[in-house]
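Help needed: design a sequence for this.
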């Protein structure tokens, strides 16, 4: 039973999603990081990247915004690629916390694991794992090069955002040292925290994010460069993590409503992956009370519903050139 995804249908659906959601003024920019509070709230972009490298965009998809927690996805993947999925599971975990992204309570409740690399605690722990150990600059190069390989184009830090986060990341400092107390930081805690803060401050466009999604959907082959970026067997591992905790305490509601494994960031971006089919991304700064972009959620939800991309449905898509019936 095979279903094919039509490119024109994807383009039309993105446009409809954009038109439907663009005037929604709900939500507020993140205000605990001063740089993010000042980003124009009406920016809005949606992008899709297909396995053949075609990119479909609508709106402000060239605007460079703070990747923030979406960066937890590439760093988790890199840690699994350098060690193994099993070792990351043992050292960090893969459980949903059911609590906010920066929860200290979650660490106290599960003191033997930081839960998952997709919340702050596990992400700081993952940064501490990145090789080579003990060398901040080389660790950082590994991360930024890996993210650039996933997007197929160079990414770099937004210096002003990095300064803004560094000046205000007191909660994350507590997390790093609390994890050290539980032997869940595998290098210097301050170094791990700084690398985490830097990775959150990377500027990325909605288009680049969609290509990252397509590389994951393609089991590690970047559709733009054709390069193999990570081991194929890690794709289902990272996608399962996104599904489990990508929206923090609202992850269940999101997955129930859309069936789209996705990861959000307080910069307003959301990365979605439909295995073997498509990478999706949307960006709009105003957030809901859990730190998830209101308009990006609305747009992706529309697209997934309209194109039947719910991963729990039976339909399987393979190539994008023509639309056919799903009857076998
Ligand atoms: N840098 C932010 C933080 O650590 C990222 C949070 C997010 O995007 N949810 O608080």
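Sure. Designed sequence:
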């Amino acid at each position: 039973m095979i279903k094919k995804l039509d490119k024109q249908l994807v383009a039309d659906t993105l446009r409809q999603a954009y038109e439907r959601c663009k005037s929604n003024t709900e939500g507020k920019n993140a205000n605990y990081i001063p740089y993010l509070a000042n980003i124009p709230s009406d920016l809005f972009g949606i992008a899709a990247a297909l396995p053949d490298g075609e990119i479909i965009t609508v709106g402000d998809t060239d605007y460079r915004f703070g990747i923030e927690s979406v960066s937890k996805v590439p760093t988790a993947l890199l840690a699994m690629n350098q060690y193994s999925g099993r070792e990351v599971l043992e050292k960090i975990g893969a459980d949903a916390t059911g609590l906010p992204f920066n929860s200290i309570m979650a660490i106290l409740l599960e003191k033997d694991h930081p839960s998952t690399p997709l919340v702050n605690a596990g992400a700081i722990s993952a940064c501490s794992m990145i090789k080579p150990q003990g060398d901040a600059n080389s660790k950082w190069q590994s991360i930024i090069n890996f993210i650039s390989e996933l997007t197929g184009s160079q990414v770099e830090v937004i210096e002003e955002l990095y300064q803004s986060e560094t000046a205000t990341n007191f909660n994350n400092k507590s997390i790093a040292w609390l994890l050290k107390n539980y032997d869940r930081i595998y290098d210097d805690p301050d170094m791990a925290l700084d690398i985490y803060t830097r990775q959150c401050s990377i500027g990325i466009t909605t288009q680049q994010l969609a290509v990252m999604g397509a590389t994951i959907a393609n089991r590690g082959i970047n559709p733009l460069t054709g390069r193999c970026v990570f081991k194929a067997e890690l794709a289902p591992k990272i996608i399962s993590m996104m599904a489990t905790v990508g929206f923090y305490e609202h992850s269940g509601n999101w997955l129930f409503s859309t069936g789209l494994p996705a990861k959000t960031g307080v910069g307003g971006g959301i990365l979605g992956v439909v295995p073997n089919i498509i990478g999706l991304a949307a960006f709009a700064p105003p957030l809901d009370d859990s730190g998830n972009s209101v308009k990006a959620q609305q747009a992706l939800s529309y697209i997934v519903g309209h194109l039947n991309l719910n991963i729990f449905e039976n339909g399987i898509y393979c190539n994008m050139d023509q639309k056919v019936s799903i009857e076998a």
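Residues 68-69, 101-102, 120, 165, 172, 200, 265-266, 291 surround glutamine (CB under 6 Å).
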